[in-house]
Design a protein that fits this description.
By secondary structure, the chain is α+β, with helices and mostly antiparallel strands. The protein has a single domain, classed as Alpha-Beta Plaits. The protein contains three helices and four strands, in the order βαββαβα. Strand 2 and strand 3 form a beta hairpin. The longest helix has 13 residues. The radius of gyration is 14 Å and the shape is elongated.
């Protein structure tokens, strides 16, 4: 089985917490981690500098389409960043836990 760390960024801690809770409650992710970051990006012709919150979801690779769709539904950004990194190495017990806590 393959596993992913799915990442998005969001504008407030409260919204990040709600998104994290929703994905875990829906069985799309076994866990979600939130960290505060500073982002520089170009949007509508202007360079922006914002404090954002990165949310990283640990999940099965097969859940990616469903978690991407759910992020779009629950996200406030017009164009949310959504990308995933394959988890190349994972301990057996942790992998078993992700499997047991996700529905996909």
């Amino acid at each position: 089985m393959n596993f992913l760390a799915v990442v998005t960024t969001i504008g407030s801690r409260a919204e990040a917490q709600q998104l994290a809770r929703t994905m875990v409650e829906q069985g799309l992710a076994a866990c979600a981690q939130i960290s505060e970051i500073e982002s520089f990006f170009k949007w509508q012709g202007a360079v922006c500098n914002e404090i954002e919150f990165r949310v990283t979801f640990k999940t099965r690779a097969s859940a990616y389409p469903a978690i991407e769709k759910a992020i779009h539904v629950h996200h406030s950004y017009e164009l949310p960043a959504i990308h995933a990194y394959p988890i190349q190495q994972i301990s057996g017990p942790y992998a078993d836990w992700i499997i047991s806590e996700t529905d996909q």
